[in-house]
Amino acid sequence: MEKVLELKHITKKFGGVVALDDVDFELYENEIVGLVGDNGAGKSTLIKIISGVYIPDVGEIYLEGKKVEIHDPKDAIRLGIETIYQDLALFDNLSASANIFAGREITIGKIGGILGWLDQKKMDKEAKLLIENFGIEIRNPKEEVRRLSGGQRQSVAISRSIKWGNKVLIMDEPTAALGVKESGKLLDLIRRVIGNVKGIVIISHNIEHVIGIANRAIVLRRGQRVGSVQIANRGDSDDLHRELVSMITGLRHT
Amino acid sequence: MQSGYKVKKFFSSQILLYSFILLLILLSVFVPAFFSARNILNILRQASTIGIIACAMTIVLIGGSVDLSVGSVVGLSGVLAISYLYRSLWLAILIPLLVAGLIGFLNGIITVKFKVDSVIVTLGSLAIIRGVTLLYTGGKMVDGILGSPYMLIGSGDFFGIPKPVVYFFFVALLLSLLLHKTKFGRQIFCIGSNFEASRTVGISAERLKVITFVISAVFAAFSAILISSRLNTASPLEGTGYEFDAITAVIVGGTSLFGGRGSLPKTILGVLFLASLNNAMILLNLNFSFEYMVKAFLLALFVYLDIRLKDI
Fold this sequence. Notes:
The complex is a heterodimer of chains A (254) and B (312).
Chain A (H helix, E strand, L loop, with lengths): L2 E12 L2 E12 L2 E6 L6 H8 L7 E6 L2 E3 L4 H6 L2 E4 L11 H5 L6 E2 L8 E2 L1 H14 L16 H15 L3 E5 L7 H14 L5 E5 L3 H7 L2 E6 L2 E7 L6 H13 L5
Helix pairs in contact in A: 5-6
Chain B lengths: L1 H29 L6 H26 L7 H16 L3 H25 L4 H20 L4 E2 L7 H4 L2 E2 L2 E2 H19 L1 H11 L1 H6 L4 H27 L1 E2 L7 H11 L11 H20 L4 H22 L3
Antiparallel strand pairs in B: 1-4, 2-3
Helix pairs in contact in B: 1-12, 2-7, 2-10, 2-11, 2-12, 3-4, 3-5, 3-10, 4-5, 4-10, 7-8, 8-10, 11-12, 11-13
């Protein structure tokens, strides 16, 4: 299986604090990897390095086998890596369509660039298709997204990312603010979305959700990689749960 | 709950229109001579000055900032225009526009790069520019050249319609299309709605914000050129309070102080509403301070509605 994304020997320090210490990370094609670990483990730092917010002190990044330099978020976007942070970065008082096409609006006619005439119909139509494709119901696509539920807002954010970034999708604690039912819907959505990108990385505190959605989990503890755990082939949820918790906390559970 | 939301939304979006219609009905009954063609044209002509500034201000507000320096820019621009009239007609037009553009650029850069709130930055420019203007003229008015073609810019009519009204119409049309139909306009809504998210999706948020200040200042200068060409004179105090009037019109029109939401056609409605009210108070011989109080009350009312209806 090919590696879509690989990080080797990543070290990142902030002043005297070592956030990441010689960490390796790999994401295979069509994989959903759960990045887990306690607070301060370095999960956030690692994905910020992938998405271009931080530059590692030591280490390399490989995308589809080729070494890449990611110096800022625009580099990551250009390479097809899209990140959805917890705040979703949505425009609350704009419609789903406006949100999906923000910054990349479709224009009609010859006058190009920033003064181009908006092709509202086309954008609305494509947005509707994109959202329906994922089986999400949004009653009125012209409605302001702040009127939507947490799960629907997530779907708009995901639709936006999928449309523009087709290599790696990173999601930071997607189910953190959602209730049980909504989390379930979101996890279903993520399962449908995996066909549209080469690989997905999900940070989550919620081990149940990780077990439910990911093929594999990579565990970090105090800036170091503890190990990688196959999830897909394990039927035994309790055992798996215990193994993950013990790797995360460093304590042995019986 | 759902129907309550719909009612509130409809109400808030149409409240101005209905208030305006109501106002016109009341005025036509209680104020003689209000609806004469002459008076209507008068209202429109007076509305043009603030109207042009308010249209540009709408863009600034939707982009998430505010420009309090427009009144001072009007003062400086008028003075510069008349002063340079003695050198050349073209300089009289170009210099104020260029200087205003520079002022807008500076307002924008300081707001964006130094991360100072636009209220503070433009409050500072308001004071500094007014001071510079007063120093430059020694506190005196500047008189133009009688019979100069410069006067043709703002005086007279195009086919029976006062020239300032025609300019107002075209500015309103141009900026409406820019704001509501172009990619540029849509991105202005984005930066006003969520500046950081705009950067995340690759919008040149900082550049766009600076541009809004440039637009505001340049149209203020344009307005000043119209005024000074009509009066053939420029006062260093011209424009005092214009920022208040323009912002009032924009807020009454329904654009939010919080950014990211608003409408240029509605600003025009706000401008006409206030101009009609103004005109009626003058026809009724009401006290100047009464007029001021009414405007202040309306501003307070619409800001209150803006805040209350924000989360509906």
